[in-house]
Amino acid sequence: MSQLPPSPGSDIVPMAATVELEKEKEDASEEDAFKSEKSEPEETTEPVPNPMAGLPPPDVGLKAWLACLGAFCGIYASFGYINVVGMFEAFYLTNQLSNYSASTVSWITSLQIFLLVAGGLLFGPVAERYGPRYLAGVGTCFVVLGVFTTSASTKYWHFLLAQGICTSLGNSMLYYASLLGVSTWFKAKRGFTLGIAVAGSSIGGLTMPFMFSELEPRIGFPWTVRAIGFVLLGMALICTVTISSRIPANPKLPLLDIKKDLIAPYKNMHIWLLTAGIFMTFWGLFVPIGYMSVQGQSNGMSPRVSFYLISIYNGCSVVGRILPGIIADHVGGFNMHAFCTILCSVFIFALWIPARTNPPIIAFSAVFGIISGSSISLFPALVGMVTPVAEVGRRLGMVSFFVAFACLTCMPIAGQILLKDNGSFDGCQAWAGVFMFCGGVTIFITKLTIPGKTWKSRF
InterPro entries under this entry (predicted)? Predict the structure, then answer.
């Protein structure tokens, strides 16, 4: 099986075996290719210890696969909850917050996505300093507190604080603890295992709308949300127990070194372009996720069926988050991400915009779930491919911080376009399609700026 080109510095120091000596030579060449990413050398006469010395090998062992299981459960309890923001927004607009516009209500759900993604700037380094398990434990407490407080909320500011802020901070802690764990334990199988982990968000997004639509008419909103909270608690506890990092925790690491973490990486054009490409992709991606149910209801779909659109999307995205990872290990992560993102744009214009009845709307939710899965599952892999493994946590957090502003603004902007167009979804759908196309093209161009890569490279 062919493999993804390994990220620089991501192998351990060899242990006297011939195969390990081969990997040492490979790592040395990779370090030369990415020398421009290193910060300026410090003035010191003491030898610098190799942080990769004595580490267990990647891709094998019980702890590695337990970390993958923990990441799956952690992302179920974090991004899985974020994946149902469209369901909550559609419900609030017809119930507790019916006096507010779609643009105003969308600030709650956009804040959820923003804090989950932007939290990486802080929680990535925290996970490196203290290990992902402690971060996951604290995140579990925030998630449980936020969800149970949401169940008792009745006013706009209640939902903003409980769901938009408290739950989202816990989601972010669980999310980055999960990503750090699985990213450090796997190298050759990184695309595949990240696909498995991120599929947790799809399973969460598949099961929670079913729970909500079946339980809410019977037991009401408060106890339905609490039931979801108990499920999230169980998954978060499994994550806390099983998640770990291949890189030992280092409490001496700074939480944020502006020169090293923010300035030095952006001296490289491929980091700029990668950030811009993911930014534009997310600017388009979350519009269908957030407005799919609302758009269905505006075309005569019943509220119950419209909630199932989220489940259909997330159920199909299980395939879209695992299969592209497997293919990416053969054809390259950048190639696969760019192809799927551009294909998402094609289906938005060709299928979602013309859809006015239930069958094509349902078909779009299924197709979009399959082809958009890689936009989320391969994002951490792309960052890891151009980052030394010991710096994956903080580099992923840095890129995510900038990308988070796309998550914060995409749905309110779409809501304003919807308001200006007097309820017509054509404008905000076109917004999503244009930016997903631009994001895919930018990701492909990013590959061309990486040293030693051409348009033909499997990278």
Answer: MFS, MFS_trans_sf, Proton-linked_MCT
Residue 3 included in any domain: no
Cα–chain-centroid distance for residue 201?
A: 9
Q: Dihedral of CA 147/149/150/156: which sign?
A: negative
Helices (H), 299-332: 303-331
Domain count, the chain: 1
- Integer Cα distance of 185 and 54 in angstroms: 14
Whole-model pTM: value is 0.71
Domain CATH code at residue 304: 1.20.1250.20
- DSSP readout, 362-407? HHHHHHHHHHHHHHHHSHHHHHHHTS-GGGHHHHHHHHHHHHHHHH
Tallying the residues shown for the chain, one arrives at 459
Torsion 330-332-338-341 (CA) sign: positive
Q: Compute the distance between CA of residue 145 and CA of residue 141 in angstroms, rounded to an integer.
A: 6
pLDDT given at position 38: 43
CA atoms lying within 13 Å on the CB side of residue 207: 16
Task: Report pLDDT for 308.
Answer: 82
Contacts of 375 (CB under 8 A, 6+ apart): 281, 282, 285, 337, 340, 341, 344, 436
Query: Is residue 236, in this structure, part of any structural domain at all?
Result: yes
| pLDDT given for residue 82 in this prediction | 82
Instruction: Compute mean pLDDT per 10 residues along the chain, 459 residues long, and list them.
Output: 40 35 42 44 48 61 87 91 81 86 83 86 84 92 94 91 92 90 78 80 84 88 93 94 84 76 79 91 88 86 83 83 80 89 94 90 91 82 78 78 86 85 87 93 90 73
- Domain residues for the domain of 398 are 62-246+255-448
Residue 68 lies in a domain: yes
Q: Give the integer Cα–Cα distance in Å for 248 and 131.
A: 7
Q: How far is CA 355 from the centre of its chain?
A: 28
- 29 lies in a domain? no
